[in-house]
Amino acid sequence: MKEKRQTIQKGLVWEAVAFADNHPNAEQIYDAIVLKHPSISRATVYRNLNMLVDEGKVKRIRVLGGPDHFDKTLGNHYHIQCTKCKKVSDIEVGDAIGICVKNIDTCGYVLESYEIVFNGVCPDCQKKITADMQ
C-alpha cells in the first residue's frame, strides 16, 4: 500500500474517524467535518476515505442493506450491525470464531483475512420497539 501525500483534507477525514465513538459511515463523517469546515465537499471526504482505506489507515466495514462504515481499529475484530437503525458496533466473541476459521477448507486459497458482521437489534431500537408496542 503506497502512502500518498498528507493533505489537510485527509487529516480532517482521519480525525473524524479516529475521534468518532462509533463506526461512522461516509455521510456521518462528512456531517462531522462540515460543521467546522463548511467548504469541504462530499466528494473530497469520500475520496480521502478511500485513500485512507487503500493506505491501510482505516478499515472499511461492508454491511448488508446499508452504506459502508469505517473503523479506526485495524486489527482483526468483529462487528454487529443493528438491522433497524444500521448502527455498527464492536462485539466481543472470544476465540471461538478464530478456532473455526482455522478449520475452514479454503479450496486452495491462502487465507489472508476475514470479515464477519453479526446482525441484531441494538438496545436503543429494542426500547423503541417496546415503547411502540405499548
Can you tell me about this structure?
With 134 residues, the chain is an alpha+beta fold. The chain has one domain (8-133): Winged helix-like DNA-binding domain superfamily/Winged helix DNA-binding domain (Arc Repressor Mutant, subunit A). It has 5 helices and 5 strands; from the N terminus they run αααββββαβα. The strands form 2 sheets. Strands 4-3-5 form a 3-stranded mixed sheet, with no helix packed on it. Strands 1-2 form a two-stranded antiparallel sheet.
Work out the helicity level.
25-40%
Report the CATH C-level class.
Mainly Alpha
Q: Give the total of domains.
A: 1
CATH topology term = Arc Repressor Mutant, subunit A
Summarize the SSE layout with pairings:
Layout (H helix, E strand, L loop, with lengths): L7 H11 L7 H11 L5 H13 L4 E3 L7 E3 L6 E5 L5 E4 L4 H7 L14 E4 L2 H11 L1
Parallel strand pairs: 3-5
Antiparallel strand pairs: 1-2, 3-4
Helix pairs in contact: 1-2, 1-3, 2-3
